[in-house]
Design goal:
241 residues, 14 helices, mainly alpha, 0% strand
Length: 241
């Protein structure tokens, strides 16, 4: 499939993939990652960061990588979030606050608090951006570590991006969805554990990120000749691995 793209289009789409997934990174590595893909040589230059990500996701080989990609595809945390979102939005504001407060001593309280706080910013209750961003980043690292071929990684990133296009209509909505999903997975009802993530979300939502201006949301991800255009609809219903 890769040979169907022009060099310029492929370079642009790779940059777009990085825009979709750089929110997973933090610190100085974010600036590097926005400009460059992780390459095989980075196993020596930036191996500490990549090894940290692989360890976080319990990835040691192709089998464990596919297991984590499958988990992200199943998106069960998204269903959990949506279920809580629907419960809360069915209540008037004051009743909702009382309901959430009543769970303070329960295991689900922090997740419930995240959902409640994000209702005004994310009325759809869709946090699938969390899966999309992490799938793309894991594919980048998997390719750099020879766990995926370039062709395999490209197809997976393409599917993840199409998944995001179907779920969201703009960059701010996507970033807010990722932010909500991240705090939900962190069990961080007070939004204290990831200040970098919060700052990035504000910057992008305000339209101040130059890359977001450069790459419009929903850009074409298929070869200019249109040969694969008919596959766009099937991408969202096919499996990642």
């Amino acid at each position: 499939m890769l040979e169907q793209y022009s060099r310029g289009q492929r370079k642009q789409i790779e940059q777009y993939f990085r825009c979709l997934s750089y929110i997973c990174t933090d610190g100085m590595i974010s600036y590097y990652y926005l400009a460059f893909d992780f390459q095989k040589k980075d196993r020596f230059i930036r191996n500490h960061y990549m090894k940290k990500i692989l360890k976080r996701w319990h990835i040691t080989d192709i089998t464990s990588l596919k297991k984590e990609l499958s988990w992200l595809l199943e998106d069960q945390h998204r269903e959990h979030y949506l279920r809580l979102h629907k419960q809360l939005t069915a209540l008037p504001w004051e009743a909702r606050q009382r309901y959430v407060k009543g769970f303070e001593n329960e295991a689900d309280y922090r997740k419930l608090a995240v959902v409640n706080r994000m209702i005004p910013e994310l009325p759809s209750g869709d946090i699938s951006a969390f899966s999309t961003a992490w799938m793309i980043l894991l594919c980048q690292i998997g390719e750099a570590h020879d766990l995926l071929s370039k062709e395999e990684a490209w197809k997976l990133k393409l599917k993840a991006a199409e998944y995001a296009h179907q779920a969201y209509s703009s960059w701010p909505e996507y970033i807010i969805g990722f932010t909500a999903g991240s705090y939900f997975m962190l069990n961080d009802g007070k939004f204290q554990k990831n200040g970098f993530l919060a700052r990035q979300a504000v910057t992008i939502s305000n339209g101040k990120n130059p890359l977001i201006k450069r790459f419009p949301w929903g850009m074409n991800l298929y070869p200019d000749n249109g040969k694969f255009a008919s596959t766009e609809q099937s991408v969202a219903t096919s499996t990642y691995v």
